[in-house]
Amino acid sequence: MKKWELTNPHSWLWVDVKGKDGKVVTWGFEAEGPSTLARAGIRPSDFKEGTKLTITGNPMRNGDPAAIWLNAVRASDGKKFDPRAGFAVK
Q1: The predicted structure's pLDDT at residue 62
Q2: Which residues, including other chains, have CB under 8 Å from residue 48's CB and lie 6 or more apart?
Q3: How do residues 61-85 score in pLDDT, each as one tens digit?
Q4: For the whole model, what pTM was predicted?
Q5: Helix H or strand E encompassing 59
Q6: How far is the C-alpha of 11 from the C-alpha of 31, rounded, in Å?
Q7: Residue 11: which domain range?
Q8: For residue range 21-58, what is the model confidence (pLDDT) as tens digits?
Q9: Rounded to the nearest 5 degrees, what angle is found at the Cα of 32, between the Cα atoms of 31 and 33?
Q10: Domain count within the chain
Q11: What is the rounded CA–CA span in Å between residue 43 and residue 6?
Q12: Percent helix, percent strand, percent coil in the chain, to nearest 5
């Protein structure tokens, strides 16, 4: 993980991805705003620079290296992060 921007109306998680050719490309994963992420249990301290992740998302249609963040798993402990869980009615 390269950078974590908790901003309104959308937050961004920036991740360096190494391709099959060995080239590194920075991908942006867009998520909900800070209050929705907090309701999903996602805190600013969950992602520090250098955190290793497996992240999935719906890529942008125009081919830019960006996607809507669907799910992430932190490599160090296997913790799962679903930013959309903050929309759940309890």
Answers
A1: 96
A2: 1, 4
A3: 999 999 999 999 999 999 999 999 9
A4: 0.90
A5: strand 53-59
A6: 5
A7: 3-87
A8: 999 999 999 999 999 999 999 999 999 999 999 999 99
A9: 125
A10: 1
A11: 9
A12: 15, 40, 45
